[in-house]
Specification:
heterodimer, A: 185 residues, mainly alpha, 6 helices, 0% strand, B: 187 residues, alpha+beta, Immunoglobulin-like, four-stranded antiparallel beta sheet, elongated, membrane (chain B), transmembrane helix (chain B), Translocon-associated protein subunit beta (chain B), transmembrane (chain B), signal (chain B)
């Protein structure tokens, strides 16, 4: 009997956990690229709207971007881990259906149940990995950008540009990172 | 009876004397106001001078002069800095507006203008000072744009930059999700 989607055996649970925290090289690269990109977007806003010259504030901008990219990447990692578990549980049936459809009748008779289940598990892990990454990036980016816009253009609007940049970037990225560390059990 | 008549006559005459000895005299109050709500370097600034005659005499040879707006700091666009009026009737007011353009940004101190007038016939000219506006911050063009321009283009471009950051990941996630949810339903 194939395990029900909500009731993993201990080994499968362990497997998923193992795959969880550590990122593959490819994932790390994707995350850091996204983090740097989303941290660089505010530079455009601050340059054009707050009239901060790029060359004058280059050092500040570079430090701010790297600082925020670090925390945003941390948030990606944490959020992805939280989401992967939930997504994997939901995709069980879908993945099983896909694999069963792909295998012909004769093939499915040859392969043992265990082998089939392993393949399903592996495929599910792959799908969950990709989806959780995308969703984590989307969710974290949205949170970061909303916090940044609120703080820079509403709360601290009257501050002069340089303190505005520092407070907004540090605040938004720190809060995003902090919120990602809270885990819902 | 004759004494009564005499007293009334004296009183009547003394009234005349009192009235005759009081000369009608003008008194001018000068106020100086800035009409703009936002003052920016390079944009026109309107200053209004109001002169009220609160006395009961006619003010003659009225001369208003404002020498506080120097050529180096302000460019005169319209109106004159020194104006003359022949007479200002009691209980009336006159207004004069000058349009200047600030050439520098930063804090600027607007001090009093001076009015010179003759309060009553054959008297010496009197001087009066206008109200002071005090120190006013003149925004540079950069600051003005920063605070008040609508920035539609900038926000539009921001929206474009967020496409790879927000829209792309979500679309990938959503495609994957529907693909595997549909399959489960079909099964």
């Amino acid at each position: 009997m194939a395990p029900k989607s909500s009731n993993f055996s201990k080994e499968e649970e362990l497997l998923l956990q193992d795959f969880g925290r550590d990122l593959s090289r490819k994932s790390s690269v994707i995350f850091y690229v996204h983090a740097l990109f989303v941290s660089a977007i505010p530079l455009w806003l601050f340059n054009r709207i707050h009239q901060m010259e790029m060359l004058d504030n280059a050092i500040l901008f570079v430090i701010g971007t790297i600082f925020s990219a670090y925390f945003v990447a941390l948030a990606y990692k944490n959020n992805k881990f939280e989401l992967k578990h939930k997504i994997a549980q939901k995709r069980s049936d879908g993945v099983a259906a896909e694999l069963n459809a792909k295998m012909s009748e004769t093939e499915s008779k040859k392969i043992s149940k265990k082998e089939k289940d392993e393949r399903i598990l592996w495929r599910k892990n792959e799908i969950a990995e990709a989806e959780s990454m995308q969703l984590a990036v989307f969710y974290t980016n949205s949170l970061f950008l909303i916090l940044l816009i609120l703080s820079s253009f509403f709360f601290f609007k009257s501050y002069s540009p340089m303190p505005n940049y520092i407070i907004s970037m540090v605040g938004a990225s720190s809060i995003t990172g902090l919120l990602s560390t809270s885990s819902q059990k | 009876r004759s004494i009564m008549k005499y007293c009334v006559l004296v009183l009547f005459l003394s009234c005349f004397c009192v009235v005759a000895s009081e000369e009608s005299s003008a008194k001018l109050i000068l106020t100086k106001n800035i009409l703009n709500s936002i003052i920016t370097q390079g944009n026109d600034l309107a200053i209004e001078y109001n002169m009220y005659n609160i006395g009961d005499g006619v003010a003659t040879d009225v001369e208003l002069a404002d020498s506080t707006l120097h050529d180096t700091d302000f460019e005169l666009i319209s109106g004159k800095m020194s104006v003359k009026w022949d007479r200002i009737q009691p209980g009336t007011n006159v207004t004069h507006v000058v349009v200047v353009r600030p050439l520098k940004s930063g804090a600027q101190n607007f001090t009093s203008a001076v009015v010179q007038y003759v309060a009553s016939e054959d008297s010496e000219p009197k001087f009066g000072f206008s109200s002071e506006i005090g120190e006013v911050e003149i925004l540079s063009l950069k600051e003005y744009n920063r605070l008040y321009a609508p920035h539609v283009v900038e926000w539009g471009m921001f929206g474009i930059w967020t496409i790879p950051s927000l829209l792309l990941p979500y679309m990938l996630y959503y495609n994957s999700k529907t693909k595997y949810t549909v399959k489960a339903k079909k099964n």
